[in-house]
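Q: Please design a sequence for this.
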């Protein structure tokens, strides 16, 4: 936890989007100098006999004004899986066994440089932060992302960040993992990364560091920074060090 906070303080990024932030880390982030913090609900997980919350967090440099904040609950969907039918549970067996309650909320905020008029939409940036479900199949994640897209503003500058949990089946054991997660037999064979790539193209969203591995255990690009077409990306990199996480941070330098 301390390494991650030191990394954020050292890099001094204007915008930081985080997922799965535990309570103690949230408290420390809230006192980080030079930043304003907006939080939302991410998930609840089992720790022994306790159920503990994790949070979504957006940190914004205090050089910017936050003009709007929203935390929206994802729709709850029945998990139409064999395990849900057999055991009467509303999720996959893996999620139930591990004690996960996922996909609680997604969040978005509007920011502007200080001194700009609030009604000047050309200077506004909308930032989304999300963590799509792990213990579901591809179709459910696509529906969740579609919910987020309902909040975009056509023509406005947008930044969409988060762990989308989009799987690339590079290893044979990936199919076994899908058996535990998928909503249907057909989804077991779906090329989820290609489906999301087509979705990004239709929405004219650019994926930074696309195809680069951000989660070594699965060898997948799970963590996304998506930019609208009116944002110029100057530099992008995936850090090799994880700084206490099991995901690699993604850094994007951009011009609006």
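A: Design:
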């Amino acid at each position: 936890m301390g390494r991650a906070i030191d990394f954020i303080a050292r890099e001094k990024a204007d915008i930081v989007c985080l997922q799965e932030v535990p309570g103690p880390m949230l408290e420390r982030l809230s006192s980080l100098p030079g930043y304003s913090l907006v939080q939302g609900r991410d998930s609840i997980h089992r720790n022994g006999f306790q159920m503990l919350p994790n949070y979504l967090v957006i940190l914004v440099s205090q050089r910017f004004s936050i003009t709007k904040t929203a935390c929206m609950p994802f729709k709850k969907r029945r998990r139409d899986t064999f395990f849900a039918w057999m055991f009467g549970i509303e999720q996959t067996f893996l999620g139930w066994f591990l004690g996960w309650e996922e996909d609680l909320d997604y969040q978005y905020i509007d920011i502007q440089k200080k001194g700009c008029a609030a009604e000047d939409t050309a200077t506004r940036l909308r930032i989304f932060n999300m963590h799509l479900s792990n213990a579901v199949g591809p179709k459910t994640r696509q529906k969740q992302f579609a919910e987020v897209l309902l909040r975009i503003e056509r023509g406005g500058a947008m930044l969409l960040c988060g762990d989308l949990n989009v799987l690339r089946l590079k290893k044979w054991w990936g199919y076994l993992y899908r058996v535990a997660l998928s909503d249907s037999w057909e989804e077991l064979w779906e090329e989820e990364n290609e489906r999301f790539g087509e979705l990004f193209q239709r929405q004219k969203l650019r994926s930074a560091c696309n195809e680069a591995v951000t989660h070594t255990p699965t060898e997948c690009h799970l963590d996304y920074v998506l930019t609208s077409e009116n944002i110029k990306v100057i530099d992008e990199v995936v850090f090799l060090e994880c700084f206490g996480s099991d995901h690699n941070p993604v850094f994007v330098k951009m011009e609006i």
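Q: Thanks. Anything notable?
A: The chain has one domain: 64-235+246-255. The longest strand covers residues 35-47.
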